[in-house]
Amino acid sequence: MEVHAGNDLEMGPGNQEGLGSDIKEETISEDSGQLGHRHRFIKKDGRRNSSGKRYQSNTASDVLETITNIQPKESGGGVGETREAIVYRLSEDMLSKLPPDYVPHEVKARLIKMGHLNSMNIFLRQEIDRMQRVISILRSSLCDLKLAIEGTIIMSENLRDALDNMYDARIPQLWKRVSWDSSTLGFWFTELLERNAQFSTWIFEGRPNVFWMTGFFNPQGFLTAMRQEVTRAHKGWALDTVTIHNDVLRQTKEEITTPPAEGVYIYGLYMDGASWDRRNGKLTESTPKVLFMQLPVLHIFAINSTAPKDPKLYVCPIYKKPKRTDLTFITVVYLRTLLSPDHWILRGVALLCDIK
What we know:
- The protein has helices spanning about 35-45, 45-70, 85-95, 105-115, 120-150, 155-165, 175-180, 185-205, 220-235, 340-345, and strands at about 1-5, 210, 240-250, 265, 270, 275, 280-285, 290-295, 300-305, 315-320, 330-335, 350.
- The longest helix has about 30 residues, at about 120-150.
- It is of the alpha+beta class.
- It comes from Sciurus carolinensis.
């Protein structure tokens, strides 16, 4: 999958905060000097390569945000639908598509059958608990919003915020606080359905062959659970000496029919700042006008070694969102390259879970 740009400006992975020259260097707690070196260049040199595109994108977003914010919030007296009518209809549509609640005793029974002490199943239970909270708050909020629009109950501050944001296709603050961020309400709700589908399939139909890591609330916890699972499978291994390794496969998600012997298969990561040569299994230059390229399935596993990694590999960070901060950083993977890793450091190459 490729995401294309609308003009000839090259899209690089520079910081999205504007074009100021004073740049605070971020610190990432990762045992890699190359990663720290890469982070410095992303903030300084990487911005130079893509500042025009980033600046235009940020300026356009700011203008659209300002236009949206200054729109009148009162109900219109014209011929068309009122704001309340539009939001009421949207609420009904979302409620009709909202997944059912997880039944606690059913989830518990399935976890016991799967092995409730297994680290991956413990992680699954935590994720389902968080998803259930989102579903419950969303269902309650939408039902109350309908009643408030009808005049049955008082329009509270949270309900007013939901009304305003839903009309503007944005995520209400209450929902965002308990879930995740996204560019529009439509993308957010679609992601909710996709996240829930992965959890529901996992708990009721069995462990997937390949995981969509973007759909986890705590992707770092997912990788930690995988390390614990591998460690417990090998007598004499200690978690402190078990480190994460990876291989990029040639297959896509649809071509994976069996799980790996150890570790996990992951799909849905997008490469920012470079492309991937699937035939040779190496990093290559970005295709012109292509902003992001989807990486094939990634096999992440663990080995009992703390030896330094091959310095010829590029230490590629993975972020949850295009905005690269400590809060969106997940981990690093090691990618093969014919060129020096410094070449990709200067381009600020990274993997993104979500490009919206």
